Prior knowledge:
- Helix 5 (147-157) runs parallel beside helix 7 (204-212).
- This protein has one domain (11-242): Acetylglutamate kinase-like (Carbamate kinase), CATH 3.40.1160.
- The model has no long low-confidence stretch (mean pLDDT 93).
- The protein has helices at residues 32-49, 65-70, 75-99, 121-129, 147-157, 191-196, 204-212, 227-232, and strands at 11-16, 52-57, 104-108, 117-118, 133-137, 162-167, 172-173, 185-186, 188-190, 217-221, 239-242.
- The strands form two sheets. It has a nine-stranded mixed sheet, with helices on both faces.
- By secondary structure, the chain is α/β, with parallel strands linked by helices.
- Strand 1, helix 1 (32-49) and strand 2 form a beta-alpha-beta unit.
Amino acid sequence: MSEPQSISYKRILLKLSGEALRAPGSRDNISPEIVARIAREIAEAQKIGNLQIAVVVGGGNIWRGAKASVRGMDRATADYVGMLATVMNALSICSAVQEAGVPCHVQSAIEMKNVAEPYVRNTARELLRKGQVIVFAAGTGNPFFSTDTAAALRACEINAEVVLKATSVDGVYTADPKQDPGATRFDTISYRECIERNLKVMDQTAFTLCKDNHKPIMVFDMHKSGNITRALLGERIGTIISA
Length: 243
């Protein structure tokens, strides 16, 4: 029997890398044009599918805590700076989603009441039920955890049905396709095989959270126009990782 070409998801966690918000070759950390495109695609999917969409965004376009710690900065301090970078990205995305006609909120794991709402699980779930988009900022609120781990954690907390990991490649490959032209893409793959093959989909903590809590992960190319909308609406456009 052939695999269905789409899966109907209602509550979704979309993970965006911070680097994705920067235009290639640009010195600007955030491209308003790219942010607007991402927001339009999120808003379009929400309107078409009446979806419940939560977003976690990284901060690597502005700051890389791990690199700063290697250069001598205290790791916890470096990670907190990175969390603040995610807040800037989250505010940019939220504003653009609102401009696209969909109510949106930023909830931060670190309290900063003048610019973002605090993260409260029950409040987040209620806003999602009302069809309002939430952008979760400041990672987990704790140093030493990646924004991938924050995405997995929030997906579990809000009972998301899937984690969509938007990347620069169109799925999971047998090897890095940028370095190995012979690499082949998986349409589907199990958590176990990902671990056995040492495929770097997410960091181990994030991946284990998804695996242990039965959250499938879809890895897809976010740079192709329309792909975020298609992924949110359940179209199989990348690699599905599940049990």
